[in-house]
Amino acid sequence: MSSKQSGMSRDDEGSSGAPPAGKTRVRDRIFDTACELFYRRGIHGVGVDAIAAEAGSNKMSFYRSFASKDALVTEYLREQEREYWVWWDSAVARHPGEPRRQIEALFEAQLEFANTKTCRGCALGNAAVEITDEEDALSNLVRDYKERVRRRLHELAGALEVRDPEGLGDALMLLMDGGYFTRLVFPGASGPIAAALPAARALIDAYLQASSR
Amino acid sequence: MSSKQSGMSRDDEGSSGAPPAGKTRVRDRIFDTACELFYRRGIHGVGVDAIAAEAGSNKMSFYRSFASKDALVTEYLREQEREYWVWWDSAVARHPGEPRRQIEALFEAQLEFANTKTCRGCALGNAAVEITDEEDALSNLVRDYKERVRRRLHELAGALEVRDPEGLGDALMLLMDGGYFTRLVFPGASGPIAAALPAARALIDAYLQASSR
DNA sequence: GGTGTACGTTACCGACCGGTAACGCCGCTG
DNA sequence: CAGCGGCGTTACCGGTCGGTAACGTACACC
Asked: Does residue B61 reach within 7 angstroms of strand D, measured from its CB?
C-alpha cells in the first residue's frame, strides 16, 4: 500500500547505451508521484499542476499521458486495490489451509503497516470520504472494493465453520476498518488498532463456541 | 449528529408581531447551512460562496459573521462534537449504573443513526481524512475528540471490571469507528455495521471471562 | 540526413477559491 | 426625525483549479 518513491531525480540514465529495461517514461514518474501525493494529501488536496511539478515535469506533459484528472484518480484507485490484494494474499499465503492463522496474519500485517511512518490508513476507504457524489464512477469503484473485502472475510469466517460466518466476517471487517480509520489520528501503534488482533482472536473464539454450543 | 434543516425557506416569520424567541439572524442560518453542507459534501468540497448562497445570503454577509472559513470549520467541528456527546449521554443515561447495557445502548443508537438517510458516518472522523496537515489546529481538534471517545470507552470497560479495560475499550472503539467508516459505502444497515452490537456483546463476554479465569 | 516522437515551455482559457471595499437600503431605537 | 446597526449588492483582488493551443527541441531510428 502507498508508494515509496519521492521524485526529484534529474533524469539520470544517459551513461551507457542500454539500461537493462529501464524506460523512465514521464507517464510512470507522474503516476507514481500522483499515487504518493493522493495518498498523503488526499485526492481533492492535490492538483494536477502540483503532481506534474513534483514529478519534474509539467501540466502539458501530464495531459499527454492522461485524459483527465478523473482518469488519473481512477487509475490510482485501481492500483491501490491491486497493491492491497497483493498485500492481503501475501499475508494469507503464509498459512495455507489454516483460516484462523490467516485471519491473525492479516491483523498482524495491518499492525505492521500501521507502524509505518507513511501510513495514512486505507487509501480506498479515505477516498470514500472524499467522494461524496454517490453517482460518481469513483464511488462505484470504492464500493466494489469494499464489497470484495467483505466477501473475502465472509469466506475466511466460513472456512472456520462457525454458525454465523457473515456475522463474524462483518465483525472482523469492523475491526480492520476501525483500525484504518483510527490510525489517521493515533500515530504508529499507539491507538486502538493495537487491540485489533487480540479482539479478533476473542471474537473468533466466541463465534466458534456459539457454533458448538 | 448532523443537522436536519435543509434551508431554502424564504424568511417566513413576519406574520404576527412577536415570534416566541426567534431571531433568525443571518449568522445562524449560515452556520446551520454550513454544518449540513460540510457533513454532506465534505469540508473541502464546499466553498463559502455556496454556503452563503444556500443560506439565502451572500459572501459579504458571511464575512461579517465569521472571521474566515477556517473559523467556521472550527466552530462546525466543535458543534459536531457537542451534538455527539449529547447523543452519547442520552444513550448512556437510559441505563444508569449498568455499564454493559450502556455500551449496548450506544451500539443500538449507532445502528439507528446508520439507518438514517442523511447519515454519512462520523463528522469528526471524516474531517480527519480531509485534514492532512497534522500541524493544523483542526487536526488537534479532531485528535482531542477521538482521545475523549477512547477515554470514555476505557471508563465504560473499566466499570465492567474486566482485567483489561483498555483492551476492551479499544476493541469497542474499533467496532464503532469501523461502523462509521463502512457506513460511507454500505447504505442503511445493510453493511457490516449491523454486526457491531452482537460483536460488542461477544467481546464483552470474552473479556469478562478472561478476568474470572 | 530526414523524419517522427517524446518531452519541455509559455501563454492562455473560464471557473472557482478565500477574502475585501464601497455603497445603499431597511427597520429599529432614541 | 435622526441615527445606526444588520444586511443585501456589486465589483474587485490575487491565486488556483482543470484543461488546451502552439511552439521549440533533443534524440532515436531508418
From this structure: yes
